[in-house]
UniProtKB/TrEMBL annotation:
Organism domain of life: Eukaryota
The protein's name: Metallo-beta-lactamase domain-containing protein
Regions annotated as coiled coil: none
Length: 121
């Protein structure tokens, strides 16, 4: 990926995207995929992260707003600092529940958190 100043973020995807038309006709890319599920996940990630795509077979295209609208909303997260507790970050700063924070945070033990980790609601 590169970020030319006037275009925003551009991904050179090769055959992850054959051409712009495979956004509407998924048989174009699925017919040659060796792992449809993984390729679908990768395509979604690229569509959500970039502004333009240079596909494997065709001209560069802008990611349509209709595709951007399908992207998951970013989680509400806070970075752990020295002295923080999971409870305080979750309840007092994120205004959430412990259950929600445990489900949305990649922290194996909420009683043992380290600076740099992310607590999410």
């Amino acid at each position: 990926m590169s970020k030319p100043q006037q275009l925003g973020l551009v991904a050179i995807t090769g055959d992850l995207f054959f051409k712009e038309e495979d956004l509407k006709d998924d048989t174009i890319w699925k017919s040659s995929s060796t792992d449809i599920a993984k390729q679908g996940e990768s395509r979604t990630a690229i569509l959500c992260d970039v502004d333009y795509i240079i596909p494997g077979h065709g001209p560069m295209f802008k990611v349509p707003a209709t595709e951007k609208a399908k992207c998951p909303k970013p989680a509400n997260c806070i970075t752990v600092n020295y002295g923080d507790t999971f409870f305080d970050l979750c309840i007092n700063k994120l205004h959430s529940t412990m259950q929600s924070c445990i489900a949305h945070s990649n922290i194996p033990n909420p009683d043992l958190i380290y600076p740099g980790q992310q607590v999410c609601a």
